[in-house]
Amino acid sequence: MTAATHSTLFPQVPESADAVLAGLDPEQREVATALHGPVCVLAGAGTGKTRAITHRIAYGVRAGIIPPAGVLAVTFTNRAAGEMRGRLRQLGAGGVQARTFHSAALRQLQFFWPKAVGGELPRLLERKIQLVAEAAARCRIRLDRNELRDTTSEIEWAKVTQTVPADYPAAVAKSDRDAPRDPAEIGQIYAMYEQLKRDRGVIDFEDVLLLTVGILQDRHDIADQIRRQYQHFVVDEYQDVSPLQQRLLDLWLGDRDSLCVVGDASQTIYSFTGATPDHLLNFRTRHPNATVVKLVRDYRSTPQVVHLANGLLGQARGRAAEHRLELVSQRDPGPEPAYTEYGDEPSEAEGTARRIRDLIAAGVPAGEIAVLYRINAQSEVYEQALADAGVPYQLRGAERFFERQEVREAGAALRSAARFGDNDSLLDDVVDLPSQVRAVLSTKGWTTEPPAGSGAVRDRWESLAALVRLAEDFARAKPAATLGDLVAELDERAAAQHAPTVQGVTLASLHAAKGLEWDAVFLVGLTEGMMPITYAKTDEQVEEERRLLYVGVTRARLHLSLSWALSRAPGGRASRRPTRFLNGLRPGSAAPGARSGAGGGGGVERGGGSRRGRRGPVQCRVCGSTLTDAGEMKLMRCEGCPSDMDEALYERLREWRSDQAKQLGQPAYCVFTDKTLMAIAEAVPSSDGELASISGVGARKLDRFGTDVLAICAGQEVGEDGDED
User: How far apart are the C-alpha atoms of 632 and 213, rounded to whole Å?
Assistant: First the structure.
């Protein structure tokens, strides 16, 4: 492979400018050497766009053509900006500014505010939603929690599209936007929100861009100063720019054309935030002399995954579809995508967890597996299923790694050990770097085995374990490295937000998965009403949903699984249909008219599961209500209904579970979750059949733990070897 996705963790800095170009494919090299004039890079998923643009910047810097301090590279997330800084540092171009639009604007605003306006910059509002709630109350408009969140999003959309409160209702009508409530009411709340901000001398996230734009428009001297500072601009994910961000970019540029933009119209999935691919699609109109390079060699995914991705876009409509890129896989063939139909959502979650457990047993690291869904509310049933299957997981969107308290404390301890290690008895008997790190972090809670249970204690251990793994990788890459060298590496990674990987299956929404990739991806809940989502009404909105599925498919390197459930709850009416986007692509489905994509291989499986044999809806055994929540279905009763649980039995089961977890060297939830233990203590099963009927037990756990559990339920003592297979 010419442009491998995987590189060594600690590569050597290229010795020269020409060495920076080594390993690039012809199109990437064309990007890297196009250092003058406007450049537009149309880059498909997995084609190495970040590699191309970082090598372009590094080549220009190393060749002496571009001064590092004269480059501003902007993107849309702190993670992406951190990755860019990390790569530039590894290429010997560490002085380049790589930031988000907001971060770059905030720095400029803080610096120029005293000169342009006077005094200190107003305080940045931390919790916008609280002020929106107060604004609604002052307007005598009652909002529930969901309406409050949606109204806050509407205000953000209005501001990034440069729509003032009075114009909001007309803007909504013009854009075919589905407002969460009467646009006139939202306009009222928006106006009151702005008034409250002025009264309290605070600004919000969007104001950072608006105020920077205002200063650059009004103060030509300040605009000129910024333009003297930055002569070269690079914009990643250009299909996601909002009108406000484009306006700021235009002001940064002035009358110059030293601009390189990178994007893919087929990955436009944030239009609800004001993002539009129009700026990317119109780039050649605005810049007729632009150099345009297309990257279509996909180094991420197998031909089978790429085949499905191309098939999805082959059915697309609209302007973005007219500019789609046909990807060409550069990898060896792999398995066909798997399509699985389940009877209900809990069975889909359990089937997915079993397949993930099998992949891990076959050698796929848990950190290289992801479960992706349309909305965050779908995560709970998968969290439960993975916990029941004994599979560690992490939710995407958690606190940044280097900002976690335990990571900061660990960094301080390692820094102290590096400085005063000669006088530290803790390090007397350890020589190699990983052993030193393990010794230091053992004082902060790291142990050779993970703690039992989940929650904050387990999260803390996972963070420290990630630092231990990083130290081991660092020592392998640099055998002569000292503890001080590792501390310096951690400091640079923290500055670049280049975090080590925390092991565990990733659970994430499709939107949160943008820009990431895994060896194995499970796309779940692919039914009409969820994909496309129910509120996608217009053709344009439906096409964005198709692009969202395309983004999900292209996250997979090797293994790809697509699944759907015919009903929500066990025994429910099988009224759901798989997403229309797979018509003509999944085996046995009819093509949507003449323009069908090529069908995938394999066949649609009928997913099984412990719930499959149930008949009729699951009902609360206390009040008789139909249950739909996964946790309630596990208990066979409503959360609020009284429990007849045997408390003493529950405590005995918890003690037994703790002993089992220690013997197995696993977290307690890998034996049974708390909900499963509660269900057992309530049902008090007396036979294998009764125990097997409890959700969360399953055949594997019945074989392994059934004898012990039934003995405890019968009031008997468990033998020393009762847990043996």
Answer: 52
